[in-house]
Sequence to fold (367 residues):
Amino acid sequence: MQTLTVDLGERSYPIYIGAGILSEPYLLKRHLAGRQVAIVTNETVAPLYLEQIEQSLSGCESVSVVLPDGESFKNWETLQLIFDGLLQARHDRKTTIVALGGGVVGDMAGFAAACYQRGVDFIQVPTTLLSQVDSSVGGKTGINHPLGKNMVGAFYQPNAVLIDTLVLNTLPARELSAGLAEVIKYGLICDLDFLGWLELHIDQLRALQPDALVQAIERSCAAKARVVGVDERESGLRAILNLGHTFGHAIETHMGYGEWLHGEAVAAGTAMALDMSARLGWISEAERDRGLRLLLRAGLPVIPPLDMAPEDFLQHMAVDKKVLDGRLRLVLLRKLGEAVITDDFPREVLNATLRADYRALADQLGQ
Ligand code: NAD
Ligand code: GLY
Fold:
């Protein structure tokens, strides 16, 4: 087992990474605030792993809350089910919420922990690749609003993150690819060496090769922990973790939550960010294509929805959390392996990016 630390002073916490660690009772139990535990999961993950985690928590006074599955349920009504479960079981301020599931469960359970009785402890047990390499680390929690993705939420850090790579064996291939979008992101924004490693190991990752998975998760979490340790509340640096997300969130909101997977929308958004960085002359076209090729090899889309007009993008992007004083800021690549957040770009370049023919680009790359 590998252990990393998210360094936030008194609120620092460990990330445990290993195969089969879900069944290690001591890992979970040492992070409980008291005797009460509420396991929040969903109807897909519950039949797979709930019993295993309940066994790890045997001896505790535990309640399980099973939510409906899907991004379209990441809303107030579903959040309320968590509070219902906690109150019906009379959980007090020393309860600990355990989030067992992907990013949707993790974001909602974390937000519930931030709100319940003004804040209780919580532990992330992420079960998708995307949640293991990104959403379970760093304390962003929340829900969607019909007008904007993740628009209601709180920064609220977990007490621990427990990543069992074995759970990925049941993950559908499309979901695995979605997680790879966030893994590739780390290479593009801050770790050129990792990008090269990914180019060599992408097929092994898609084949769930255990050593490759542990390495990819470890390097991704280490990158995220570094950034969060410097800028927990996204006053600057942390925004680089959103490469491709402004375009991607626009796709998710426009298409209706759940139609495109979050990682798929991020992949198409990353293709757009790569293209815009190339148009600005910050990276070469060959470097743009290098990024696109890796996304394609990971089984990800690089073509935004064909029925989405530039105006649709602009309308949704105007409510992005990175908009400040009415100015749109984007995460772009100053060079390959180095991201910046900037509002300093000619509007024509953005417009050209939104109008670009990504299908032709993908065709050129031989897909
Ligand atoms: P998800 O939570 O919807 O999970 C994807 C699907 O896989 C679901 O159907 C789920 O039930 C199923 N599943 C989960 N684990 C499984 C397993 N081991 N075996 C079989 N099926 C399994 O999606 P996701 O990609 O994990 O997360 C996306 C969400 O995360 C979005 O809402 C996004 O906004 C959020 N997010 C948050 C952050 C953050 O920093 N908080 C970062 C990135 C993404
Ligand atoms: N996923 C972006 C962040 O955690 O900041």
